[in-house]
Design brief:
Layout lengths: L4 E10 L5 E11 L6 E4 L13 H4 L9 H7 L12 E3 L2 E5 L7 E6 L13 H21 L5 E8 L11 E7 L4 H17 L3 H9 L5 E5 L2 E4 L10 E5 L10 H19 L5 E6 L9 E6 L13 H4 L4 E3 L3 H9 L3
Helix pairs in contact: 3-6
The structure holds zinc ion.
The site of zinc ion has 6 residues, from loops.
Length: 331
């Protein structure tokens, strides 16, 4: 497996150094699977000194996902799901009122209207993933062509969430997203060329190294060589297909996620995204991606500039080796 990196130098006369000539370096890294590039550049992430979101997140007036509303104000499933809504622990699962595809689902994750990301419990995430996986099973059982599936989450507005109340979103359809197609096609090409599964080889290659983070029940966690976004962490599940809602690996997924979020909070962050890909393909096991997002406060900075939305270029300030070491302490 090749980890290719190129260093570029940028020279100018700096106002910070009495207009002396200075040379800054930027590292450009290539993802070993897709060839997608990421730049490690100082100053690519803006951190506020502090934040106060209490007034915003504390207002639960009219929230459809709070316990007194979720059973009345959210949609119910069509007949093929065999239930009106799904429930597991605190989690309630129901169709997305604003669907993104054939089978579009929401899991209201908690009974509390808001809790900081480092306060999610393993149980809450295990129940949330369990509810989402039950929906994936239902959709795939109903429609054999709905092969592409993912479970996703935006947490707080700077991560794209319109609602404060913690929730996950599941999408199952026959097309998948650009990222799902890119990863699956590259994984299939790798398997064809190497006769092995990229994700298993990646774990074997990185285990114990400087980008290795740790292990939870059935899940290996590491920082990818060429991150897609800030503090990008990947978890590779040791199963070949979407697990059943009660499988031990689901609790392992939940436990690792709480550890990753604890490391984000330790770094001063308060928002994140995740995407769990469930390709159910022999070339690619289930893989979860977690990224930190711009700190949410009143005048928060968008961390999705042209690089992210128009160039699909990862631009990060903290190298994976550095944040992997920080996250390792939580495992
Ligand atoms: Zn709420």
């Amino acid at each position: 497996m090749e980890f290719q990196s190129h260093t570029q130098e940028s020279t100018f006369h700096s106002p910070l150094e009495d207009f002396e000539r200075v040379t800054e370096t930027v590292e450009v890294r290539e993802d070993p699977l897709t060839g997608r590039t990421a730049r490690v550049a100082d100053g690519a992430f803006v951190m506020p000194d502090d934040y106060d979101i209490e007034a915003f997140v504390g207002d639960d007036e009219g929230c459809f996902f709070c316990p007194d509303m979720v059973g009345d104000a959210t949609p119910t499933y069509p007949e093929w799901m065999g239930q009106e809504r799904g429930t597991r622990g605190e989690a309630t699962s129901f169709p997305n009122l604003n669907p993104y595809g054939s089978y579009s689902n929401v899991v209201a994750l908690t009974e509390t209207h808001f809790q900081p990301m480092e306060e999610f419990t393993v149980r809450q995430f295990a129940d949330g993933f369990g509810a989402a996986l039950a929906f994936v099973r239902g959709a795939r059982g109903h429609d054999a062509e709905a092969t592409r599936a993912s479970v996703n989450m935006n947490f707080l507005r700077s991560a794209g969430s319109s609602l404060v109340h913690p929730h996950m979103q599941t999408l199952v359809d026959g097309r998948g997203t650009n990222e799902q197609r890119t990863l699956l096609e590259a994984s299939r090409e790798y398997r064809e060329a190497e006769g092995s599964v990229y994700w298993r080889d990646l774990v074997a290659e990185e285990r114990g190294g400087e980008r290795w983070i740790g292990e939870t029940d059935g899940v290996s966690w590491l920082a990818p060589f060429a991150p897609k976004h800030h503090r990008h962490v990947v978890g590779v599940l040791d199963v070949d297909a979407a697990p059943a809602p009660d499988d031990a690996v689901v609790a392992g997924l939940a436990e690792g996620l709480t550890n990753v979020l604890a490391s984000y909070a330790e770094a001063g962050l308060n928002a994140f995204n995740l995407a769990l890909h469930l390709p159910d393909d022999e070339a690619m096991p289930p893989v979860i991606n977690v990224i930190g997002r711009a700190v949410f406060d009143e005048y928060y900075w968008s961390d999705s500039p042209f690089f992210t939305v128009l160039h699909d270029e990862g631009v990060v300030a903290t190298p994976p080796e550095e944040y992997a070491a920080a996250a390792r302490g939580e495992f």
